[in-house]
């Protein structure tokens, strides 16, 4: 009697599990939320009188009279865009070749180009209504903050997953310094910087979405160093957010009801707290997205 061998059961690779589908689509949702956040920042701090007053108070409160510091600061900010972006693009290409990850090299180029082009187009085409008796051309969003954040995001993306949290923590510190410096130098208002961070995050989320479309699979477990980095960034975001909310309430009260309640320097520190909170929050999302990338494809290096 001949036994009939049973047909082996094979997995249907064309179907994705709900968890895998969510893992693939979640960056797209994050991109939409980041874009909506940038719109809300513009609507509040550019489109309303009180928002403009708060923003301008932080800008003018950063005034300082240190010629040597001002010179170094100006040179650093001048070099941020071209030098940093060129260096990062080269590094991304080299890392992509060495790790056999052409998708990350292409994604990095898209992130840098898209974020900086969008920022420059918005700055050139948006008007700033005069609602706070402080005439100044539109500076929303910040090109310097966009350049710094996109460079840091690219470095996080091209490094191996186990190191992305550490690189993200260093990158967040660098971006926060550049962002606060632009306000201190009176080049940008805090809302310009916060919007730039959200624009970069939106573009970054789109790049991760594209990468995950090619590299389907469930979300892997995040390495302990990356989790620790998110705890540090989370603590910084929570403290800075609390300080920023208290500061904005105090500055708003000073602007509308009790003049001279707080000093200009206090307003500047309030704007700084808002920038730190936004920087920490955007890097939490970015580290989480990049650290949760599916397992490498055959032939890739991780």
UniProtKB/TrEMBL annotation:
Keywords: Membrane, Transmembrane, Transmembrane helix. The keyword Transmembrane helix applies. Residues 105-208 form the Phosphatidic acid phosphatase type 2/haloperoxidase domain. Pfam families: PAP2 (PF01569). The keyword Transmembrane applies. The chain crosses the membrane at residues 25-45, 79-97, 104-122, 142-160, 167-187, 193-211, 231-254, 266-289. Coiled coil: none annotated. It comes from the Bacteria. This is PAP2 superfamily protein. The lineage of its organism: Bacteria, Bacillati, Actinomycetota, Actinomycetes, Micromonosporales.
């Amino acid at each position: 009697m001949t036994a009939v061998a049973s047909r082996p059961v094979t997995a249907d690779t064309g179907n994705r599990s709900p968890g895998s589908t969510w893992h693939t689509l979640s960056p797209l949702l994050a991109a939409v939320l980041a874009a909506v956040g940038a719109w809300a920042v513009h609507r509040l701090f550019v489109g309303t009188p009180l928002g403009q007053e708060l923003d301008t108070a932080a800008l003018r409160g950063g005034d300082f009279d240190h010629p040597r510091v001002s010179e170094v600061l100006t040179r650093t900010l001048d070099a941020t865009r071209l030098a940093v972006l060129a260096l990062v693009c080269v590094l991304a290409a080299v890392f992509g070749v060495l790790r056999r990850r052409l998708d990350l090299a292409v994604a990095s180029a898209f992130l840098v180009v898209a974020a900086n082009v969008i920022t420059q187009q918005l700055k050139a085409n948006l008007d700033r209504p005069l609602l706070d008796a402080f005439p100044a051309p539109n500076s929303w969003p910040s090109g310097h903050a966009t350049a710094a954040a996109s460079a840091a995001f690219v470095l996080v993306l091209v490094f191996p997953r186990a190191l992305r949290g550490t690189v993200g923590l260093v990158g967040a510190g660098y971006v926060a310094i550049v962002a606060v410096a632009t306000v201190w130098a009176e080049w940008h208002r805090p809302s310009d910087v916060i919007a730039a961070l959200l624009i970069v995050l939106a573009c970054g989320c789109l790049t991760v979405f594209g990468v995950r479309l090619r590299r389907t699979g469930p979300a892997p477990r995040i390495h302990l160093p990356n989790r620790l980095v998110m705890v540090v960034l989370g603590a910084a975001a929570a403290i800075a957010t609390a300080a920023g909310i208290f500061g904005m309430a105090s500055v708003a009260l000073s602007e509308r009801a009790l003049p001279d309640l707080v000093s200009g320097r206090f307003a500047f520190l309030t704007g700084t707290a808002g920038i730190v909170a936004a920087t920490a929050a955007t890097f939490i999302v970015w580290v989480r997205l990049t650290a949760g990338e599916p397992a490498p494809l055959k032939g890739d290096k991780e």
